[in-house]
Amino acid sequence: MSIAISSQVIDITPAIRERIESRFEKLNRRQIALITPHVMIQKEGLNYLVEASAGVPGETLFAQAEDENLYAAINDLGHKLERQLTKYAEKPLAQRANAGQPAAEEESEE
């Protein structure tokens, strides 16, 4: 998978690229294709701000994390994207579970 990583304030070292790619490899275990993932690294004061966006069929995932340690921010970002991807993957199951229940508005009219 090709991940676009950009930053205007720091150089993207091989170690930073490897950490980001390893976090996205964990997301690939869900068997959902990520479309054009992009990671942006910024520095605000003493903290690093890491933002990521990735498309999935029908939606776009976006997360951001901030920490004094760049690697901790990348890990936090990965956890946030993982939660969003889990929610996206389980959405059809939640919709199917609610399909047989009548709407609350219909019951209140009777």
From TrEMBL:
Entry-linked Pfam families: Ribosomal_S30AE
SUPFAM superfamilies for this protein: Ribosome binding protein Y (YfiA homologue)
Gene3D superfamilies to which the protein is assigned, alphabetical: Ribosome hibernation promotion factor-like
UniProt xrefs under InterPro entries: RHF-like (IPR036567), RHF/RaiA (IPR003489)
Source organism, top-level taxon: Bacteria
Protein name stated in the entry: Ribosome-associated translation inhibitor RaiA
Recorded name of the encoding gene: raiA
